[in-house]
Design a protein that fits this description.
The structure holds two protein chains of two kinds. By secondary structure, chain A is an alpha/beta fold. Chain A is built from 13 helices and eleven strands. A seven-stranded parallel beta sheet of chain A has the order 3-2-1-4-5-7-10, with helices on both faces. The longest helix of chain B is centred in the C-terminal third of the chain and has 21 residues. Chain B is globular and about 70 Å long. At the A-B interface, loops of A face α6 of B.
Chain lengths: ~325, ~575
């Protein structure tokens, strides 16, 4: 890979490089003059690495300047613990750790980084809190790390917040949700998130700090879903009754999840209670700290949506269904 | 938060920065918008979350001519959401001409312009859930809306104006969660305002007397009070509060309750269209955002000026349901089912004269001989109206022949003799009931008659169709009287004016001579337009909220010394 051969640029170990954010970061770093990505993931994007294996991680840390920990999902608590432990012995200049707004749980109102979690927090949020705890301990022990908490990461490559929602809109299973969609969507555009990560790699004086990351704090889910549906040509937008949403989350979601094990189609896309709760949650992520400390750009909603739709229309169905592979691999 | 006033103890004193009386679309819009200013907001609503007979009985009153105006307790439910709990959802902005001083209409003209209200329409449209603020048929739906009558380009009417439909959104149900969640908003249900207490010199409102449903009284103090109780209760409370201002608050010039307007509306005429049936579209088109949209024929402003008429619109409509001569099964089925339809809709749909046995029989035959259309209609109604969250707005039935009628909505001109007053009888709180003396003027009849003639001429000139009047419609005044005051649109009884001589409230909706009393809603509209009032009620409430947001920040806290403001949640 050309990247890894260019030794004038500082190497960044990207953990979770085959995941959505990790892969986008690797792409972005390929155009960077300052950094080059050392992509690592279990599934073979760049160097194969088992992030839960301490020896593997220690070896990977040996030749890098800093680390972007984009590992998400199953195993993230363990691998974050392993990373912090390995870094104690062989400290990189900085670890940028990707957390999530899920750590705030059911908090409402304008939420800054010092907001305490509010129950119910959910398994994902709990796992992200555990990861943050490990990172914070690492900082307390003298390490240099920064935590980023993006909202719902949206844009090309996002299965969770782009492909899934597009499928549901196209199937008219969601649309204008009425009072069930009054929550703010706190979308974080993938390009903004990636820019935030890269800024966080070397911004000075931010070690140990945490930053909310989002691009559209003011938009409600209803406003976003209607605009997204229109851009997708999934019109006329359906008005979904609260009772229909309740039937979806309580009765149909478990059935759809079982069916999803056998076949992947819009019909097996479940609307889980936690997803419905998020649409309703009136939480506004305040990212003024990231704007001032990281120069976080904020892509306007119409540009985010246009980019997502372009990607959805052009990407092969296989990439829309699974994690998008990094372009260079 | 939302609280039941029955939990409040006798003689308690409740304080807020801003007290809004009435939890209808205006009051709810104000409360939600003012919540963002951080001021403490108290919303007093006489009813509960749902209508009740007990609360509704407070609306009872006298109607001078019951053939012209619906009973006093109809069309205005006392509950959170107010009239939006029963409205049809038709959203139409006022036209620029509605705000102008028109030499041919006495007492016309607003002290504010169209632009002052227009900038609030997009947000009002969103609150009403009527989709995008786009009222041009050519762009409102993807590819543009279908023409009503293909090839028809009338000289006197604009064919590209539309109406958009709300779900219809019940503001009480839809925004309850937001009201509950707002820390600085307190909604008091079952709290009936019974008296505005003016200061000794009459220049301020010192407090508001309130009763809960158990007749326990308490008082509310606030820096600002807003009356958002609709066009009938607002003047009633102002007139009732007569201990300092002899004729009632804000009534030094005897304007409160006067200029009471509804709309002149109904169905008229028979239109036989010449072209093939596929050249006619009298139904709805659906915008990308899912909103139902419908075209209308709007009387052009220059024509209004040229002929000295009020504003008016026509819609192509199915034949009059009550007349079994339409031979259309679904229409007869509706006629037969009228007792299952709520008063507010049944009145518009069917009832004019008591049906005879022969009428029932003929409708029965229509339904029986046209069973497939009837079933098709019922299935469509069930799916797209009964079970749908965004409801198909009205009965659209293609008649058997190319025979239609015209639905009209016309402005009623401001008339000081048409008025809301107080009756001799009292409600259970001892307050005098309303006396509704609705009157129409010759000019109102002329608007309908002349615009009908102009449309007939336009249709004939372009050989589109033949518009005629039935023998019992030849006298247009009889048609106007048949439909009477359009139910639910109560306008003008605390009108906005440039000065105290011409209005009850000023351009900021503040009552002349009373420094902290405001009126929201259609009571303050000085003219009625052709448009249904709800969208403009919401838009003007947003405008008032903007003003009060600023005023509340600037205003000296009179009474703050003796009445300290609660530090946190009120």
């Amino acid at each position: 890979m050309a990247d890894s051969m260019d030794f004038s640029r500082k190497p960044v170990l990207v953990l979770g490089a085959s995941g959505f954010i990790g892969s986008q970061l690797v792409v972005a770093l390929s155009g960077s003059r300052t950094y080059r990505a050392v992509a690592a993931s279990r599934r073979g994007a760049g160097a194969a690495l088992d992030a839960t294996n301490a020896a593997d991680v220690r070896a990977a840390l040996r030749d890098v300047d800093c680390v972007a920990n984009c590992i998400d999902g199953y195993g993230m608590v363990r691998s974050t613990g392993v990373l912090c432990e390995a870094a104690r012995a062989l400290p990189p200049r900085r670890i940028v750790h990707l957390s999530s707004m899920a750590v705030y749980g059911a908090a409402t109102g304008t939420v800054r980084e010092d907001q305490a979690p509010v129950s119910p927090i959910g398994d994902y949020g709990q796992a992200k809190i555990a990861c943050e705890r490990a990172v914070r301990k690492y900082v307390d022990d003298g390490g240099d790390a920064v935590i980023l908490r993006p909202g719902c990461v949206f844009g090309p490559g996002s299965v969770q917040w782009t492909t899934r929602l597009a499928r549901l809109l196209e199937a008219r299973r969601i649309g204008d949700l009425g009072s069930a969609g009054d929550g703010r969507c706190n979308l974080a555009f993938i390009d903004d998130v990636v820019t935030g990560i890269i800024s966080a790699l070397d911004a000075s004086g931010i070690s140990g700090r945490t930053f909310n990351i989002c691009s559209s704090a003011e938009l409600t889910w209803n406003e976003f879903l209607v605009a997204f549906a229109k851009a997708l040509d999934a019109i006329p937008v359906r008005r979904v009754a609260p009772r229909m949403l309740a039937i979806e989350t309580r009765f149909l979601a478990p059935l759809r999840r079982i069916a999803a094990m056998a076949v992947s189609s819009p019909a097996t896309e479940a609307i889980t209670p936690s997803l419905a709760a998020l649409w309703h949650q009136d939480i506004r992520i305040d990212c003024s700290a990231a704007i001032s400390a990281l120069g976080l750009p904020r892509t306007p909603p119409d540009r985010m949506i246009a980019a997502a739709v372009r990607w959805l229309k052009s990407a092969p169905v296989s990439t829309r269904r699974g994690w998008m592979e990094p372009a260079h691999s | 938060m939302i609280q039941d006033a029955d939990e409040i103890v006798r003689d308690a004193a409740v304080h807020a920065n801003i007290c809004i009386v009435g939890g209808g679309p205006a009051g709810i819009t104000l409360a939600m918008t003012l919540a963002k200013t951080g001021k403490s907001v108290l919303l007093i609503e006489s009813g509960g979350l749902a209508p009740s007979n007990e609360a509704q009985a407070l609306n009872a009153g006298e109607v001078v001519d019951e053939t012209l105006h619906s009973p006093a307790d109809k069309y205005r439910p006392r509950c959170l959401g107010g009239a939006t709990s029963i409205w049809g959802g038709r959203c139409v902005p006022f036209d620029p001409i509605d705000f102008e001083q028109r030499p041919w209409i006495d007492h016309s003209g607003w002290p504010i312009g169209y632009d002052d209200v227009e900038r609030y329409y997009p947000a009002a449209n969103a609150l009403c859930e009527a989709g995008e603020y786009e009222y041009d048929a050519r762009v409102a739906t993807p590819g543009g809306m279908r023409p009503v009558l293909r090839g028809f380009t009338p000289r006197h009417f604009d064919v590209n104006g539309i109406e958009r439909f709300s779900c219809p959104t019940d503001f009480g149900r839809r925004y309850q969660t937001r009201l509950r969640a707002a820390a600085n908003v307190r909604v008091l249900l079952r709290a009936t305002a019974t008296r505005l207490r003016a200061s000794r010199d009459g220049s301020r409102i010192d407090g508001l007397d309130v009763r809960n449903s158990r007749d326990v009284g308490f008082s509310v103090t606030a820096e600002q009070f807003v009356l958002a109780m609709g066009g009938i209760e607002t003047p009633r409370l102002m007139l009732t509060s007569d201990d300092v201002h002899a004729g009632g608050i804000g009534n030094a010039n005897d304007l409160v309750g006067r200029f009471y307007m509804c709309h002149i509306a109904g169905t008229i005429g028979t239109l036989r269209v010449n072209g093939p049936s596929d050249s006619i579209w009298h139904g709805y088109d659906v915008a990308a955002d899912g909103t139902y949209c419908r075209r209308r024929f709007s009387l052009r402003p220059d024509v209004q000026a040229g002929f000295g008429l009020g504003n008016a619109v026509f819609r192509l409509h199915h034949p009059r349901i009550a007349d079994p001569g339409h031979r259309t099964g679904p229409l007869s089925a509706i006629y037969l089912a009228q007792r299952f339809i709520s008063y507010e809709y049944a009145k518009r749909l069917v009832s004019h004269t008591p049906p005879t046995a022969g009428t029932w029989l003929r409708h029965g035959l229509n339904a029986a001989t046209d069973p497939f259309s009837t079933i098709r209609f019922l299935v469509h109604w069930l799916r797209y109206r009964t079970l749908a969250e965004r409801k198909f707005p009205s009965v659209i039935i293609r008649p058997r022949a190319n025979l239609f009628s015209l639905d009209f909505n016309a402005e009623q001109v401001p008339n000081p003799d048409s008025r809301i007053g107080l009756a001799g009888t009292r409600d259970r709180f001892g307050n005098r009931r309303v006396r509704i003396d609705w009157r129409y003027a010759a000019q109102d009849v002329e608007t309908v008659a002349r615009s009908f003639d102009l449309l007939r001429d336009d249709l004939a000139e372009q050989a589109i169709g033949r518009l005629t009047l039935a023998p019992d419609e030849a006298d247009i005044e009889a048609v106007v009287r048949r439909d009477g005051a359009y139910g639910g649109h109560h306008i003008g009884t605390a009108r906005m004016g440039a000065s105290a001589a011409s209005g009850v409230v000023d351009r900021d909706c503040k009552v002349f001579g009373v420094n902290n009393l405001y009126v929201a809603g259609s009571a303050m509209f000085p003219t009625s337009s052709q448009a249904n009032p709800t969208l403009t009620i919401v838009a003007t409430a947003l405008r008032l909220a903007d003003h009060l947001g600023g005023v509340a920040t600037r205003a000296p806290c009179v009474g703050a010394a003796e009445q300290p403001e609660p530090a946190t949640v009120l």
